[in-house]
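2024-03-11 09:14:02 INFO receiving multi-entity request
2024-03-11 09:14:02 INFO entity count = two
2024-03-11 09:14:03 INFO echoing inputs for audit
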Amino acid sequence: MNLIASSATDHRGLTMTLFGLFVLATLGITVWAGRQTKDAADFYAGGRAFSGFQNGLAISGDYMSAASFLGIAGAIALFGYDGFLYSIGFLVAWLVALLLVAEPLRNSGRYTMADVLAFRMRQRPVRTAAGISTIVVSIFYLLAQMVGAGSLVALLLGVSGDAAKRWTIVAVGALMVLYVAIGGMKGTTWVQIVKAVLLIAGTALMTVLVLAKYHFNLSALLGAAADASGKANAFLEPGLKYGVTGTSKLDFLSLGLALVLGTAGLPHILVRFYTVPTAKAARKSVLWAIGIIGGFYLMTLALGFGAAALVGPKAIKAANAAGNTAAPQLAEQLGGGAGTTGGAVLLAVISAVAFATILAVVAGLTLASSASFAHDLYANVIRRGRVSEREEVRVAKWAAAGIGAVAIVLSLFADKLNAAALVALAFAVAASANLPTLLYSLFWKRFNTTGAVSSVYAGLICSVALVIFSPVVSGAKNSLFPHSDFHWFPLENPGLVSIPVGFLAGWAGTVLSRRRADPAKYAELEVRSLTGLGAH
Amino acid sequence: MESPPITTTPSETQLIEESAEFRNLRRSFRNFAFPVTIGFVLWYLLYVLLSGYAPALMGTRVVGHINVALALGLMQFVTTFAIAAWYARYADRRIDPRASAIREARGAVVHAPREAAE
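2024-03-11 09:21:47 INFO inference complete, emitting structure
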């Protein structure tokens, strides 16, 4: 805490000013976007008028959450090489989205993921299942971001105590509801774009400053990081975090699987493909996203090893045991160190960027889940499609407020949960419940309603249940309930079991049911998904 | 503004689905996407397994402080960028012309006014 607290007064005002400017600018954009939002396609899909490049930036903004920026930099700073493993999984995952999901989804869906899953199935059961899993995945992801926001504020602004954390969570929640309810997808997309540009600029600046200290010699930076870490060469090799026991190795495999298969099942990412006019533009947006996100993760390598070398693991751990403040601490060091003007300015800039990141990501999540509530659960399940678009959008806005309230309340109680574990869990649920159903729907002619419902629920229930009985929730020092122990599943990440279960359940449900898939509907889906004929 | 969806009756789409042009399109898409996906997932899993179970190999120095683990990790970045670029090229040449030929042959140019927005 010392390093941060000592200069808290220097940078706090500046951080608040910069962050205030970001909030004002984005609220301005939101109000402007709200005036342009006339119908449901504007609200849910930004009028489908964004370009591939704009959407690529917005996707990157949605994806580079605080967990990526602060979490990965911190993990590399503390665990060296093992922290880097996260970013590889997060990046390779985009190829699944590029090759199998983005274009067919753009062509065959309208506003939500469930549009594609329910396309050739019985609407109500499939939409209910898909809507529930969309909301569950988004809430886990939301919790992670908001919990992160709470602890970040306490650390960066040097305020301590639960009251400050709670007010931060409430303020973040209220802002995200405003963005979504007023600006819809148009406003949210522009907020993501602004945030992505700020984040990349901030990261690039720090990367150049770090590399300049080592004369742009990567090997020298790595050597300095290994020396400062006190673990010598082991710091640059796999195993510090995940190589300890047989179980932790399996856990790493499980995490790796969830990361690479989860991205293409994250609802808030999938809905971004609807904001462009054609499948080709959807492809271009993923190509841009791969370039931007890949470049960003390469830079986090410099940030993480730079923090290890220049700040040192002792100071990082003293400020935050999980390493979440490594990047801001590095910024202060690069600017000239604690107590200098340069240090205070750079720390303030990077802290403001981190807040902007959290705010933009939570807005994207709230939009995806409230859209699914209004479009899938309310309009198609409860009202069986007999509802006007105006009313549907009104419900979506109220749903945003409702989901915001739920997320605020849950975050207030969940603030001891580990943010990174929550994100990994969201990926595992998405990979187990959403991805199998999506791939079967698009590519397997025989797949039917029973199969779709089975794979969503089996993947969802299996992944959530395994987490409840894992060391994340009980039986370990840093679990949610450290004093009780009802865990029997040894791994922290359920992916290794729950992803195969999701795929198997979809196959078994289809094969075992007597229901026949409708060949005419599959023809319609296939022709639409590959050619764009009849696409919205 | 949403352009009105083009309505194609099921029988019409089934005819398209069974046509030689469409089968060609489907083949050129699947022959690329499926094997390449299996390939990069296996390559990624190999990397994950090596990190977990072959620490000695991964710790071998290549140049200076750069070891096999880091080099393989960076290779994952390189292959990801390369596969993305390869697919972009392939789709431009083999998929897009076939898809637009089918769209045009069926008398409907989907979202024509907005192609410029790409």
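2024-03-11 09:21:48 INFO post-check: The two ends of chain A are 53 Å apart (CA to CA).
2024-03-11 09:21:48 INFO post-check: The first helix of chain A runs from residue 2 to 6.
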